[in-house]
Design a protein that fits this description.
Blueprint (H helix, E strand, L loop, with lengths): L9 E5 L8 E5 L4 E6 L6 H16 L5 E6 L3 E6 L6 H14 L7 E2 L2 E9 L2 H13 L13 H8 L4 H10 L2 E6 L6 E5 L15 E4 L3 E5 L2 E4 L4 E3 L2 E5 L25 E6 L2 H12 L6 E4 L2 E2 H10 L1 H16 L5
Parallel strand pairs: 7-15
Antiparallel strand pairs: 1-2, 2-3, 3-5, 4-5, 6-17, 7-14, 7-16, 8-9, 8-15, 9-12, 10-13, 11-12, 11-14
Length: 326
């Protein structure tokens, strides 16, 4: 890999070595340092490293670090230059990098959060119907008041049950949280069940709280009523509550943290609506299990299912070629 261009923003560089990815440090104004890992491609192993380095950096308790914003393959570190010099910050980050082992040796603190999901729910249909009525009636992804059939076509799946089975078959890794407060960006840990869909064009003006959608290779849960561009296929329970009406949100209004995994189980919509009300009244207890994530074991699983995952990817890519983009 070539050394990154040394622009005014360039602050430092580590070559890839010994199973560790390349790292580039960039100034982002006078109070932020952007740390980028590896090539600009989708690779969950880069995210595992981002989260590990971020955790170890924060554990140092350095005076002057205000907060951090880990992303898929980057970390944005906000610092107070009156309390810590950026060169010192980069030195500390390099020291942390030296202490973090290569990818296969990582084990990350993680939780499994079990969430119910109602597929093809009425609130998601309402969002699609509003869009077709008031924004774009000819959108190929919004025919018949649902996005689900479009997702099926784009992924080459035979029917709706096949889509639901894929969503339920894997844990979904929350690589990072952002855009809206508490919004998780989740990816399947089992590569056989990877899905893909282009986003709306233009975006929706309304999406229900708890809606679950697919954009690119990512599944997200909408934490609040908001505009949105992901293809909706279901709805789950609240994942963000600033008022702390349920015990799960008392210490932190954000339920799903980076490095958490979500496991969905299917329910009917009337049961989901009752549980939604129970969450608000503090009668619902979220099922959350502490379960460290072993990267080596995950890599072994990915290798064991590689042929099936490759075949599924080829099917998706062939189907996508014949499906119109919104």
């Amino acid at each position: 890999m070539t050394t990154p261009g040394r622009t005014a923003a360039f602050a430092g560089h580590r070559e890839a070595a010994d199973g560790r990815p390349e790292v580039v440090f960039r100034y982002a104004g006078d109070r932020f340092l952007l740390v980028e890992y590896g090539p600009m491609e989708f690779d969950l192993q880069l995210n595992f490293r981002v989260l590990t380095v971020n955790r170890r950096l924060l554990e140092r308790g350095l005076d002057g670090i205000v907060d951090t914003g880990p992303g898929l393959r980057s970390n944005l570190v906000r610092y107070d230059p009156s309390r810590i010099d950026p060169s010192r910050l980069i030195a500390e980050l390099n020291d942390v990098e030296d202490s973090v082992p290569a990818g296969a040796e990582l084990e990350l603190p993680s939780r499994v959060i079990h969430l119910p999901i109602a597929f093809d729910d009425s609130r998601s249909r309402e969002a699609v119907e509003r869009y077709a009525r008031s924004v774009r009636a000819d959108a190929p992804n919004a025919q018949d008041g649902t996005n689900i059939d479009y997702v099926l076509a784009y992924n080459g799946l035979p029917d709706r049950q096949a889509l639901y089975d894929e969503v339920l078959a894997t844990e979904w890794w929350n690589a990072f949280t952002g855009f809206f407060p508490g919004l998780p960006f989740m990816y399947p840990l089992d590569p056989r069940y990877a899905l893909f869909a282009p986003k709306y064009n233009p975006t929706r003006t309304w999406t229900a709280e708890g809606a679950v959608g697919l954009g690119g290779p990512c599944v997200a849960i909408y934490p609040v009523e908001s505009p949105g561009g992901y293809q909706l296929f279901g709805r789950t329970l609240p994942i963000y509550d600033l008022a702390g009406r349920n015990a799960a949100f008392r210490e932190d209004p954000i339920l799903i943290k980076p490095g958490d995994r979500v496991r969905f189980h299917r329910v009917e919509e009337d049961e989901l609506e009752r549980s939604f009300a129970d969450v608000r009244e503090d009668r619902y207890e979220y099922r959350i299990e502490e379960d460290p994530f072993d990267v080596e074991r995950w890599l072994e699983h990915c290798e064991a299912v590689r042929e099936e995952a490759d075949a599924n990817r080829a099917r998706r890519e062939a189907a996508a070629e014949g499906t119109p983009v919104p």
